[in-house]
UniProtKB/TrEMBL annotation:
Native source organism of the sequence: Engystomops pustulosus (Tungara frog)
Xref: InterPro entries: Macrophage_inhib_fac, Tautomerase/MIF_sf
SUPFAM superfamilies named among the record's database cross-references: Tautomerase/MIF
Protein name: D-dopachrome decarboxylase
Enzyme class label: lyase
Keywords: Acetylation, Cytoplasm, Lyase, Melanin biosynthesis
Alphabetized Pfam families for the sequence: MIF
Free-text function comment from the UniProt entry: Tautomerization of D-dopachrome with decarboxylation to give 5,6-dihydroxyindole (DHI).
First-listed, main subcellular location of the protein, grouped into a coarse class: cytoplasm
GO BP terms in the entry: melanin biosynthetic process
Residues that span the membrane, as ranges: none
Protein backbone atom coordinates (compact mmCIF):
# COMPACT_ATOMS: atom_id res chain seq x y z
CA UNK A 1 0.00 0.00 0.00
CA UNK A 2 2.23 2.84 -1.25
CA UNK A 3 1.65 6.40 -0.06
CA UNK A 4 2.81 9.28 -2.26
CA UNK A 5 3.12 12.82 -0.93
CA UNK A 6 3.88 15.22 -3.77
CA UNK A 7 4.69 18.87 -3.08
CA UNK A 8 5.51 21.57 -5.63
CA UNK A 9 5.71 25.31 -5.94
CA UNK A 10 4.14 25.03 -9.39
CA UNK A 11 0.60 26.37 -9.50
CA UNK A 12 -2.33 24.00 -10.01
CA UNK A 13 -2.53 25.36 -13.55
CA UNK A 14 1.14 24.41 -14.00
CA UNK A 15 0.45 20.68 -13.82
CA UNK A 16 -1.94 18.44 -15.74
CA UNK A 17 -5.45 18.14 -14.34
CA UNK A 18 -5.04 14.36 -14.15
CA UNK A 19 -1.54 14.47 -12.64
CA UNK A 20 -2.56 12.62 -9.45
CA UNK A 21 -3.97 9.73 -11.47
CA UNK A 22 -0.89 9.63 -13.70
CA UNK A 23 1.35 9.66 -10.63
CA UNK A 24 -0.59 6.73 -9.12
CA UNK A 25 -0.30 4.74 -12.34
CA UNK A 26 3.40 5.47 -12.66
CA UNK A 27 4.05 4.54 -9.03
CA UNK A 28 2.09 1.30 -9.37
CA UNK A 29 4.19 0.32 -12.37
CA UNK A 30 7.50 1.40 -10.80
CA UNK A 31 6.85 -0.27 -7.44
CA UNK A 32 5.09 -3.37 -8.79
CA UNK A 33 1.87 -2.68 -6.90
CA UNK A 34 -1.78 -2.65 -7.98
CA UNK A 35 -2.93 0.85 -8.95
CA UNK A 36 -5.93 0.49 -6.64
CA UNK A 37 -3.57 0.20 -3.67
CA UNK A 38 -1.64 3.42 -4.36
CA UNK A 39 -2.61 6.53 -2.36
CA UNK A 40 -1.51 10.00 -3.42
CA UNK A 41 -1.71 13.53 -2.11
CA UNK A 42 -0.76 16.37 -4.46
CA UNK A 43 -0.12 19.84 -3.08
CA UNK A 44 0.57 22.71 -5.48
CA UNK A 45 1.49 26.37 -5.10
CA UNK A 46 3.62 25.87 -2.00
CA UNK A 47 6.44 28.09 -0.83
CA UNK A 48 9.46 25.84 -1.50
CA UNK A 49 13.22 26.11 -1.84
CA UNK A 50 15.34 23.34 -3.37
CA UNK A 51 19.09 23.70 -3.62
CA UNK A 52 18.93 27.27 -2.36
CA UNK A 53 16.53 28.39 -5.09
CA UNK A 54 12.78 28.98 -5.19
CA UNK A 55 12.71 28.32 -8.95
CA UNK A 56 10.07 25.75 -10.00
CA UNK A 57 10.67 22.54 -8.07
CA UNK A 58 9.01 19.43 -6.69
CA UNK A 59 9.47 16.85 -3.95
CA UNK A 60 8.00 13.36 -3.84
CA UNK A 61 7.92 11.24 -0.70
CA UNK A 62 7.37 7.54 -1.41
CA UNK A 63 6.37 5.38 1.58
CA UNK A 64 5.60 1.69 1.18
CA UNK A 65 5.87 -1.76 2.70
CA UNK A 66 8.57 -4.00 1.31
CA UNK A 67 9.60 -2.20 -1.88
CA UNK A 68 11.62 0.85 -0.77
CA UNK A 69 13.84 -0.67 1.88
CA UNK A 70 17.23 -0.95 0.16
CA UNK A 71 19.62 1.29 -1.75
CA UNK A 72 19.45 -1.08 -4.73
CA UNK A 73 15.64 -0.92 -4.87
CA UNK A 74 15.56 2.84 -4.48
CA UNK A 75 18.25 3.42 -7.11
CA UNK A 76 16.03 1.67 -9.67
CA UNK A 77 12.89 3.41 -8.44
CA UNK A 78 14.62 6.78 -8.45
CA UNK A 79 15.58 6.59 -12.12
CA UNK A 80 12.01 5.72 -13.11
CA UNK A 81 10.36 8.35 -10.89
CA UNK A 82 12.77 11.01 -12.20
CA UNK A 83 11.96 10.03 -15.77
CA UNK A 84 8.23 10.40 -15.09
CA UNK A 85 8.41 13.61 -13.04
CA UNK A 86 10.86 15.55 -15.21
CA UNK A 87 8.87 14.72 -18.34
CA UNK A 88 5.43 15.35 -16.80
CA UNK A 89 6.42 18.60 -15.04
CA UNK A 90 9.02 19.90 -17.50
CA UNK A 91 11.54 20.28 -14.68
CA UNK A 92 15.26 19.58 -14.68
CA UNK A 93 16.56 16.73 -12.54
CA UNK A 94 18.20 19.23 -10.19
CA UNK A 95 14.75 20.67 -9.38
CA UNK A 96 13.23 17.38 -8.19
CA UNK A 97 13.89 15.55 -4.92
CA UNK A 98 12.70 12.11 -3.83
CA UNK A 99 12.53 10.68 -0.31
CA UNK A 100 11.93 6.99 0.30
CA UNK A 101 10.40 5.76 3.55
CA UNK A 102 10.07 2.02 4.21
CA UNK A 103 7.00 1.13 6.24
CA UNK A 104 6.16 -1.87 8.39
CA UNK A 105 2.69 -3.49 8.23
CA UNK A 106 1.93 -2.47 11.82
CA UNK A 107 2.36 1.21 10.83
CA UNK A 108 -0.64 1.24 8.47
CA UNK A 109 -4.18 1.24 9.85
CA UNK A 110 -7.04 -0.08 7.72
CA UNK A 111 -10.46 -1.57 8.40
CA UNK A 112 -10.25 -0.98 12.16
CA UNK A 113 -6.93 -2.81 12.48
CA UNK A 114 -3.42 -2.66 11.03
CA UNK A 115 -2.07 -4.30 7.88
CA UNK A 116 -0.27 -6.92 9.97
CA UNK A 117 -3.62 -8.59 10.63
CA UNK A 118 -5.16 -8.21 7.17
Amino acid sequence: MPFLDFDTNLSQEGIAEDFAEKLCSAAASILGKDKERVNATVRCGLSMVVGGSSAPCAQLIISSIGVVGTAEQNKEHSAKFFEFLTKELNLGEDRVLLRFHPLEPWQIGKKRTVMTFL
